[in-house]
Amino acid sequence: MQDMQLLNEGFALMGLGMGFVFVFLTVLVIVTTLMSRVIGRFFPEPAPAAPSRPGRAAPAKDDELMAVIGAAVHRYRQRR
């Protein structure tokens, strides 16, 4: 008889613990969602600035960068 009583108390304690965790996680999700909505309403993200010119950066900078990289590779190969 005592084993059955201990088993019943164990199941009751397990149900209580799982219920508490379920309620806590549900409250956590609700609070997080509400907080996100409040932050979104009172502190909206600024709109991203439109690019002045669609496309790549200035080609002169790319050419200069390629020349510097080429010189570095050439110098590295000369030393090895």
Automatic annotation (TrEMBL):
Cofactor(s) essential for the protein: Na(+)
Question: Any keyword Transmembrane?
Answer: yes
Its localization reads:
Cell membrane
A GO molecular function annotation here is: sodium ion transmembrane transporter activity
One family name in Pfam for this protein: OAD_gamma
> Which residue ranges run through the membrane?
12-34
Which membrane topology term applies here?
Single-pass membrane protein
Q: Which GO terms describe its cellular component?
A: plasma membrane
Primary localization class, coarse: membrane
According to its UniProt entry, one GO biological process term is: sodium ion export across plasma membrane
Its EC number is 7.2.4.2
Q: Does the keyword Chloroplast apply?
A: no
InterPro entries, alphabetically?
Na_pump_deCOase, OadG
Keywords noted in UniProt:
Cell membrane, Ion transport, Lyase, Membrane, Sodium, Sodium transport, Translocase, Transmembrane, Transmembrane helix, Transport
Substrates-to-products reaction catalysed: oxaloacetate + 2 Na(+)(in) + H(+) = pyruvate + 2 Na(+)(out) + CO2
User: Could you say which protein family the record assigns here?
Assistant: Belongs to the OadG family.
Quaternary arrangement and interactors, per the entry? Heterotrimer of an alpha, a beta and a gamma subunit.
User: What is the role of this chain?
Assistant: Catalyzes the decarboxylation of oxaloacetate coupled to Na(+) translocation.
Protein name, as recorded: Probable oxaloacetate decarboxylase gamma chain
User: What gene name is given for the protein in this entry?
Assistant: oadG
